[in-house]
Design a protein that fits this description.
It is a single chain. The chain is an alpha/beta fold and about 200 residues long. The chain has six helices and nine strands. The strands form two sheets. A seven-stranded mixed β-sheet has the order 5-4-1-6-8-7-9, sandwiched between helices. A two-stranded antiparallel ribbon has the order 2-3. α3 packs antiparallel against α5. The protein is globular and about 40 Å long. It starts with 7 loop residues before the first strand and ends in a 20-residue tail after the last strand.
């Protein structure tokens, strides 16, 4: 029997300092008239996540002041400068005791990925053993869903900017790939040139 999708929490990694963007926190970049973090959290909720934990880092106080994230849990990552791995650990750690059976993880700087892709990945959730990843023309990307059975091992291996990459590589055969190339574009907003993708 498939478990209830309500047991899947969204985890939005939004702690980056935008080093290659002149030090502007990515969470505060403007997209469609709103800070990027509001857009990205809205995508997770619209895609079917029952709740969203947003991991903040760079200028977290400023981000908290400027954004409106009703229904979201804001998680501070004081070690954000260590890279995405620390934010993933903070996000997964914040789900302890919430009853969540899986985490659907997305990145704040991928506005080309919308609710449709989130919904597709979410639909492949089965139980706490689930490992699901969006794919773009067969290549693994975001969002990624981690069943709770994997959290401790992922947290133990999530270092630097690699996030869960090492863990996923090791467990490749267990991952359900969900093709999303027809409904989403997985570009990142990393450099000034990438800002053309924002609207």
């Amino acid at each position: 029997m498939t478990e209830n999708k309500d047991q899947v929490a969204g985890v939005l990694l939004a702690a980056g300092g935008g080093r290659r963007l002149g030090g502007h926190p990515k969470a505060l970049l403007s997209h469609r008239g709103h800070p990027l973090v509001e857009h990205a959290a809205g995508v997770l909720l619209a895609g079917g996540c029952s709740r969203v934990h947003v991991v903040l880092g760079a200028q977290a106080d400023v981000v908290r002041e400027r954004v409106s994230l009703p229904g979201c849990v804001l998680v501070d990552n004081p070690e954000w400068e260590e890279g995405m791995g620390s934010s993933l650990r903070a996000g997964l750690g914040s789900l302890a005791g919430t009853g969540a059976r899986a985490a659907l993880v997305s990145l704040v700087d991928q506005p080309g990925i919308g609710p449709e892709a989130v919904g597709r990945v979410l639909a492949a959730y089965r139980d706490p053993e689930s490992l699901v990843s969006a794919a773009y023309e067969g290549v693994r990307g975001h969002p990624v869903l981690f069943g709770a059975a994997h959290w401790a091992a992922i947290a133990a291996t999530a270092t630097g900017d690699r996030g869960a990459r090492a863990y996923l590589k090791e467990h490749e055969e267990a991952i359900t790939l969900v093709e999303c190339g027809d409904i989403a574009r997985p570009y990142d907003i990393d450099t000034a040139e990438d800002l053309v993708h924002l609207e």
